[in-house]
Every structure is written in structure tokens, then in C-alpha cells.
Amino acid sequence: MAMLDKPINELNLVPFVSVDDMMKIILEIGVENVLVGLCEYLEEDFRRWDLFDKTPRIASHSNEGVIELMPTSDGHDYGFKYVNGHPKNTKDGLQTVTAFGVLADVDTGYPVMLTEMTILTALRTAATSAMAAKYLMPKGSKTMAMIGNGAQSEFQALAFKAICGITDLRLYDIDSSATDRCIKNLSNSGLKMVKCDSEQSAVEGAEIITTVTADKQYATILTDNMVGAGVHINAIGGDCPGKTELHKDILLRSDIFVEYTPQTRIEGEIQQLDDDYPVKELWQVMTGEVEGRTNDKQITLFDSVGFAIEDFSALRYIRDQLQKTGHFTNLDMLADPDDPRDLYGMILRAEKNLS
Ligand code: NAD
User: Fold this and answer.
1) Residue 126, domain member (yes or no)
2) Angstrom distances, CA of residue 274 to CA of 74, 82, 159, 211, 279
């Protein structure tokens, strides 16, 4: 635990939240409380959407995956996340998605926090999904199907429980050991869980369908015949050019809600549709600018790809927990000569001190 006798950021030290610190913060606050807290920060930022700098994330693609930078600013703080997506990594014992991020002060340009974001991304993705569902799912939804039971899955399940009141989960993964792990990890969550042997069986009776698979291809996790009237689809895994989960016919039957249209056209399920196909942005539903669910026959689809403002909200949330929890280390990562222009002199003085 860092010493808290000085305010964070004094002496140009930058608070760093390691993976270990992040886990301590989450355990101290409680996973479901963190998800609810993140949802509040997300709602606050989605409601002031116009204020933010927005750009589709900057992606560097390779045969095996993608590395992306996700920047944004509200004019007061600036944040960015570095994130990768490498579906084959798990075969070598590595994560599909890893991330870290920085929050900075716009007035000075100085970073005010550096943090792990692999765990934080899973939390913010889940909180964003549940926030979208709160506005779009059929009223009183209790059962969610979850197809793909990898790293993101427990977070998704707990967010839907804490934020949407989901009580029942129907789980399917092509790798049945993934489902077993997910069920074991959630055994004390209070969720009722059923392990299913196909996508078709998983979606039976579910009001919400979450697809959260990883495969770098145009996959068809759900076909049109599997999706009944009135369901809400939370599609998480199609988040890259050439990487989708839903059959195009499902999109044509759904009302589609996205985070930031220019990015989702490149990366989301809607890359399968024409560039001018009508979609609505989630923030517009939240501010009442457009309607969300209007009837109980409507299929609503949250075509999630993950947008920079969600990471910004997550960075703000974690920054605000630092003083309370003390779980961070101060990093000496900013050169701070006494005379700001005498940067070289710093090296000379260091040399003297060494000799
Ligand atoms: P993961 O590799 O840990 O888990 C993916 C799971 O999907 C695996 O268990 C795999 O067996 C399963 N799977 C693959 N193909 C399947 C199929 N056809 N049917 C059923 N199951 C199948 O990956 P993860 O970290 O859980 O991420 C899942 C997806 O979510 C990835 O595509 C990732 O890029 C995406 N993601 C999206 C966001 C967002 O904001 N939208 C954020 C984080 C991750």
C-alpha cells in the first residue's frame, strides 16, 4: 500500500496501479459494487457525449491479431488505452486481450495515473453491456444466454446480475471446459446456471443473448432461426474488421444500437451492412434523444466494440478510488529538473552524484 501522508501526484510522481493493486481495489470494494460504480461513471460520461473528442481507435493489424490505441478527452482530463486482441494467444497460455492505460491532466499534459487495464477492460465492457441492456432489454428480464465462456464471461454475468437483475444463466462454449470454469467461478454468485450443449439450446427461454466468443473470422455464432421476437442481443465478440458473430439476417431484423458509429462501421457486426444502414447511438437513448425499446416484439441489438469514452470512465473511476484505498505505487516517470529548461543539467548532476 502506498503512503498517503502526501497527496497523490506530489513531487511529479505518477500513481501506478499494478495488476496486484487492481485486484486489491476490486476485492476491497467488491466486484459487483465496482461494476455498479463503473456503470454510474459510464452513464455520466455517455450523457455528456458531445463534450468528448472522438475518433475511431487507431488499429495496427497483423495475421494473428490487432494492437490498438484508444484516446479521448473531455477537455479537463485526457485518457488513452493500449489494448490488443489475439484470439490464438490462449493456446500458448496467454490472454486474448491485455491492456494498460493512462489518465492525464489536460492543462499541464502531465499523466496523473498509469494503470493495468486487462482486468479493468473486462469490468468496463461488462458494465457497458449491462448499462445498454438496462435501456434495451425486455422489462423484467431474468434469463441470459451466454455463448462464449472465456475471460470476459464471469464479468458479463455479474454485471447483468448487479445492474439488470438477471438471475439465470444458460451457458455454452465450444470448449466445454471453459463453461465448467465459468460455472465454478460463479458458484457463489447466487446465479442459477445451466450448462448447454449447443447455441440453440442456450438461447431457449432467454430474454437476453450475450455472444462473447473470440475468433478472427466472419463467424456465425447465431443464425436467424435461433433469435426469437422480443430478445435483446448483447454482441461483444465482433469487434474487428473481418471478425463478426451474427448472421446478417439477424441484423436486418433488429434495431441496432452502437457506441460510436464511425468506429462500429469498421469493427462491429454492422460491417456486414451498407455504410448508410440506420443505427442509433446508445448515448442518444440515454439522453432521450431517440427511442430504445418501443415494444415487446422488437429485437434490440447492442453491437458492442468497446469505445475510448468507456475506458475514460473506467480510468476516472479507478483514479477516484486511489486516495480511498491507497492501492498504488508512485512511479518516477517524469523528469523534473529544478530549472525546467535545464534538462541536460539533471544528467550532469546525476553523474556527479554517482562519482
Ligand atoms: P477468450 O479467448 O478468453 O474467450 C473466448 C471464448 O469463446 C473461448 O472460451 C472459446 O472457446 C469460445 N468460442 C470461440 N468460438 C466459439 C463458438 N463458435 N461458439 C461458442 N464458443 C466459442 O476471449 P475473451 O477475452 O473472453 O473475449 C471474448 C471476445 O470479446 C473477443 O472476441 C474479444 O475481442 C471481445 N471483447 C470485446 C470487447 C468490447 O468492448 N466489445 C471488450 C473485450 C473483449
Assistant:
1) no
2) 31, 30, 32, 23, 11
Domain count, the chain: 2
Is pLDDT of 8 > 70? no
% of the chain at pLDDT higher than 70: 97
How far is Cα 355 from Cα 351, in angstroms, rounded to an integer? 6
Instruction: Return the residue whose CA atom lies nearest to atom 4 of ligand 1.
Output: 150
239 tagged catalytic: yes
Instruction: Scan for cell 483514479, then name that residue.
Output: 319
pLDDT above 50 for 6? no
Instruction: Tell me which DSSP letter residue 7 carries.
Output: -
Ligand 1 environment, Cβ below 6 A: 85, 90, 96-97, 121, 125, 147-152, 173-175, 178, 212-215, 219, 221, 236-237, 239, 304-306
Backbone angles phi, psi at 23, to 5 degrees: -65, -40
Dist CA 86 CA 163 (whole Å): 29
Instruction: Give this prediction's pTM.
Output: 0.95
Tell me, what CATH number does 257's domain have? Answer: 3.40.50.720
Where in the sequence is the domain holding 209, given as residue range(s)?
Answer: 137-306
Return the C-alpha cell found at 206. Answer: 432467454
45's enclosing H/E stretch is: helix 31-46
- 78 neighbors 52 (Cβ within 8 angstroms): no
Go through the chain and tell me how many residues it has: 355
Residue 96 C-alpha cell reads as 486474448
CATH number, position 34:
3.30.1780.10
